Amino acid sequence: MHFLTSIIRISLLAAITIPSTLAAPTPSSLQTRAETYVGYLVSTFSDVTPAVQFHLSKGNDAGSYTFLNKGQPVLKSTVGTKGVRDIFLAHDGARTKYYMIATDLDINAAGFSWDAATRTGSRGIVVWSSTDLVSWSASTLRTVENANAGMVWAPSAVWDDATSQFYVFWSSRLYASSDSKHTGTATLDRIRYTTTKDFVTFATAKDYVALADTPLIDQEFQYLGKTGNFARFLKNETVNQVYVETTTGGLFGKWTRTPGYVRPESPREGPASFADNVTPGLYHLLLDDYTQYVPYQSTDPAKSGTWAASSYPNFPQGLKHGSVTPLTQKEYNAVAARYPA
Ligand SMILES: *[C@@H]1O[C@H](CO)[C@@H](O)[C@H](O)[C@H]1NC(C)=O
Predict the structure, then answer these.
(1) What was the pLDDT predicted at 11?
(2) Which residues form the signal peptide (predicted)?
(3) Which of 50, 51, 203, 271 has minimal CB crowding within 10 Å?
């Protein structure tokens, strides 16, 4: 999300960890049902055009895509700042409800500043909904944060079959409740979460990962094929690198850090991870180098040094922080027909 070197910020609040009483839910994720996937849909944006854009894989090739809708955006925000970044496509387990969610932020707006964007930025996410991936509602701005939050960045969501709801995550920094204008010093950026069944009403936002010494943004999960088994990718904003943690105990289980970072290069941000549709156990990871996504892959996501650059000579240029969704044949045909290249 950041283009600028991080400013060292001083934490007002102690680090908060998830109380053990919250350890119960073990969301089972989007990819637990036996589906045959025939391709990939990348939902993304670009710096010059902060609106939702689709790239569809050529067949089931994770490295080769066509820019749908003749390169024009498929969804534009008419709410909030009217610009969106950090696009995430969520859907329920039955693939009957789709939600496109995004950061409400237009960095090209007149008078834009990162300082203002993190003190009095949007406390909502932009949401579009659909039942078929091609007919979409108008954009709506849904407040997910409390009044003491400075912004809401990079939303993502995980569907939980057991409770028929989404867990929604994003990053925020928080101001003291006495600092109603947010002019003082905030906490470090941390990962926050809520739950929702419909992206209309949301539970009260809470901390998910908050560290005393490290500002964190851009979290994304990868389901690892077995109930409760996930990887999560997080950006350390001090070094502008992404690290990985894994669990076998669900989203609120015990997470184990893989030492170091998934890649030695900096900057890297905006992780988008997806399982390969063809090769079992192969995972892909897109990391934004502040210009565009660079594709990596691993067959052992939790192991240090296993994320290698993918040799994809035709990988599209200019993709920014987004998400990659495996598609069924019905979904693939629908988007290809509705948004021809
Ligand atoms: C983030 O990077 C800083 C600087 O190297 C380091 O001190 C800190 O421990 C790192 N935090 C995490 C969670 O990796």
Answers:
(1) 31
(2) 1-23
(3) 203
